[in-house]
């Protein structure tokens, strides 16, 4: 495995819609493993492939329950809304308020190509919405309701 460079805001790869993954190859699996290592190295709870310069619909997350990789994730249901603070590994030193759905259902493939369906709430729901946004070229700066003043020490990046 390898730690990859994380691209930051201003890079066009973060602003475009990422491509569907049509086939999960050895290269895809290596990318997923490298993304997981990169996420841990950066102390993040989530990472999307465009953040390592790869415009493909792949995300990885770990909100404290072990690593999860999703290929071609889609939000198929969303309910409620809540505002909370988010950070992003591609936007260093910024903490902003973002409104997200409270509960969501996500359908995707896992790293083995098997269909998975996730019903999420809380931090997982928020992290999934943040990462899936990255696949559509949407950043928290596009959704921010306001900025947190001063330093937030406990928020993990995504
Ligand atoms: Ni992010």
Helix fraction, binned, reads 10-25%
The biggest sheet amounts to: 5 strands, antiparallel
CATH topology: Peptide Deformylase
What is the percentage of strand-forming residues? 25-35%
Bound molecules: nickel (II) ion
- Largest beta sheet: strand ordering: 1-2-3-6-7
Name given to the CATH architecture: Alpha-Beta Complex
What is the number of strand segments? Answer: 8
Number of domains: 1
> Whole-number average pLDDT?
95
CATH class: Alpha Beta
> Any idea what the CATH superfamily is called?
Peptide deformylase
**Would you tell me the structural class of the helices and strands?**
alpha+beta
Question: What is the N-to-C succession of helices and strands?
Answer: HEEEEEEEHHE
Q: Output the radius of gyration.
A: 14 Å
Shape: globular
Number of helices: 3
Description:
The protein has 158 residues and is α+β, with helices and mostly antiparallel strands. The protein has a single domain, classed as Peptide deformylase (Peptide Deformylase, Alpha-Beta Complex), CATH 3.90.45.10. The protein is built from 3 helices and 8 strands. The strands form 2 sheets. A 5-stranded antiparallel beta sheet has the order 1-2-3-6-7. A hairpin with a 2-residue loop joins strand 4 and strand 5. Nickel (II) ion (NI) binds next to helix 2. Nickel (II) ion binds next to helix 2.
Helix-strand layout with pairing:
Layout: H1 26-41, E1 46-48, E2 58-61, E3 68-79, E4 82-88, E5 91-100, E6 103-109, E7 115-121, H2 122-135, H3 140-143, E8 146-147
Antiparallel strand pairs: 1-2, 2-3, 3-6, 4-5, 5-8, 6-7
The chain binds nickel (II) ion.
């Amino acid at each position: 495995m390898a730690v990859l460079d994380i691209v930051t805001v201003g890079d066009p790869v973060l602003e475009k819609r990422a491509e569907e993954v049509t086939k999960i190859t050895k290269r895809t699996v290596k990318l997923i493993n490298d993304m997981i290592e990169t996420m841990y190295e950066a102390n993040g709870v989530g990472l999307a492939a465009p953040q390592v310069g790869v415009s493909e619909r792949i995300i990885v997350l770990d909100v404290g329950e072990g690593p999860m990789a999703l290929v071609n994730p889609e939000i198929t249901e969303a309910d409620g809304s809540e505002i909370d603070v988010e950070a992003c590994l591609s936007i260093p030193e910024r903490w902003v308020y973002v409104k997200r759905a409270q509960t969501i259902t996500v359908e995707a493939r896992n790293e083995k190509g098997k269909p998975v369906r996730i019903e999420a709430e809380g931090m997982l729901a928020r992290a999934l919405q943040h990462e899936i946004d990255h696949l559509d070229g949407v950043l928290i700066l596009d959704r921010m309701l306001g900025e947190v003043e001063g330093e937030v020490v406990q928020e993990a990046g995504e």
